[in-house]
């Protein structure tokens, strides 16, 4: 009887569709070519959130040491260059981690910083390049026209420019920036609350693969680009996952913070008929402190993964 039960179990497992998760490369050596490293996944205000008395912050039961504000590192091992996408309030520890990924570098100072927009989690880390901290020497900072003007004309950021702590480099939408013959970064405009600057996402093209990074955007319907069609053109997408559902907005006007809900984004891709192998490209990032996807033990986390999507995690790496 026992052998019959074993055979039945094997048969049932054989009939069950098993879709392996994408490779999560945390420690691969030797490294060469171009890699993107996730340096943070949390929305601007961090985790735990200031003065938050909800269970999500007040009764944290899992480690938050790696729950840093959303940012990416881009490593070009062939040229020993390291670039930073967005300067967050966690920039000090993030640059230290990025340096550990390329041990041949002499210091933690990035070769350039690329800014998406002027919301606090995406540019305020620049303050650590100033005279009170690093005292940086002409660190290249790529910015769109309004973003560049904002930094030049508003303190304390203008002091960074005046003291040559940073060297502002202009970007233009859809205009490629060639960092090497095999590493190209291209900004593109996305709709968002643009009080002080434009908002952009980035396409990062390596020698073999490409990655789309959109940490902040309003509803997909407000963007003239079809995100499903775009997903078929690239290899990885790190997309705005700020809120999982409307339940997190119980005291806010949704029209004031019209991020696409994770539930909406998933439905968008699932309705388009993408296979799980294609859904694996999509990683949610920029998660609000209320988002259950911050907790890998939460049943909603497992539900999202079971549907084929991924949730970005600190240290995730993508070989381009």
* Spatial strand order of the main sheet: 6-5-4-3-2-1-14
Oligomeric state of this protein: single chain
CATH topology: Metallo-beta-lactamase, Chain A
Give the class-level CATH name. Answer: Alpha Beta
In what range is the share of β-strand residues? 15-25%
Explain what this protein looks like in three dimensions:
By secondary structure, the protein is α/β, with parallel strands linked by helices. The protein is 23% helix and 21% strand. The protein is built from ten helices and 14 strands. The strands form two sheets. Strands 6-5-4-3-2-1-14 form a seven-stranded mixed β-sheet. It has a seven-stranded mixed β-sheet with strand order 7-8-9-10-11-12-13, covered by helices on one side.
Summed up, what is this model?
By secondary structure, the protein is of the alpha/beta class.
What secondary-structure arrangement, pairings included, does this model have?
Layout: H1 2-15, E1 34-40, H2 55-58, E2 71-76, E3 81-85, H3 91-101, E4 112-114, H4 120-123, E5 139-143, H5 145-153, H6 157-162, E6 166-170, E7 177-180, E8 183-189, E9 200-205, E10 210-214, H7 227-231, E11 236-240, H8 262-271, H9 276-279, E12 282-285, H10 299-306, E13 310-311, E14 317-319
Parallel strand pairs: 3-4, 4-5, 5-6, 10-11, 11-12, 12-13
Antiparallel strand pairs: 1-2, 1-14, 2-3, 7-8, 8-9, 9-10
């Amino acid at each position: 009887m026992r052998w019959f039960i074993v055979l039945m179990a094997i048969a049932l497992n054989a009939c069950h569709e098993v879709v392996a998760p994408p490779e999560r490369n945390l420690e691969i050596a030797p490294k060469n070519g171009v890699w993107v490293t996730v340096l943070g996944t949390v929305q601007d205000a961090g985790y735990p959130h200031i003065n938050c008395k909800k269970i999500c912050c007040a009764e944290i039961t899992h480690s938050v040491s790696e729950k840093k504000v959303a940012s990416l590192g881009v490593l070009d091992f062939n040229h020993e260059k390291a670039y930073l996408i967005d300067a967050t309030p966690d920039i000090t520890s993030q640059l230290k981690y990025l340096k550990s990924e390329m041990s041949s570098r002499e210091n933690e100072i990035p070769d350039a910083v690329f800014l998406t927009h002027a919301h606090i989690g995406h540019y305020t880390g620049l303050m650590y390049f100033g005279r009170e901290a690093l005292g940086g020497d002409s660190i290249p900072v790529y910015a769109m026209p309004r973003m560049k003007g904002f930094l030049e004309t508003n303190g304390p950021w203008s002091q960074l420019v005046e003291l040559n702590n940073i060297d502002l480099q202009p970007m233009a939408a859809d205009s490629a920036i060639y960092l090497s013959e095999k590493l190209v970064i291209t900004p593109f405009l996305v709709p968002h609350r643009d009080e002080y600057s434009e908002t952009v996402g980035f396409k990062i093209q390596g020698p073999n693969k490409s990655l789309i990074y959109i940490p902040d955007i309003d509803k997909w319907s407000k963007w003239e680009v079809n995100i499903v069609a775009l997903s078929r053109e690239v290899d990885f997408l790190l997309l705005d996952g700020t809120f999982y559902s409307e339940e997190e907005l119980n005291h806010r006007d949704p029209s004031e913070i019209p991020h696409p809900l994770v539930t909406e984004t998933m439905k968008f891709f699932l309705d388009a008929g993408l296979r799980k192998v294609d859904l694996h490209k999509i990683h949610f990032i920029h998660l609000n402190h209320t988002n259950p996807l911050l907790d890998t033990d939460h049943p909603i986390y497992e539900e999202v993964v079971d549907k084929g999507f991924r949730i970005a995690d600190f240290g995730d790496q993508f070989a381009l």
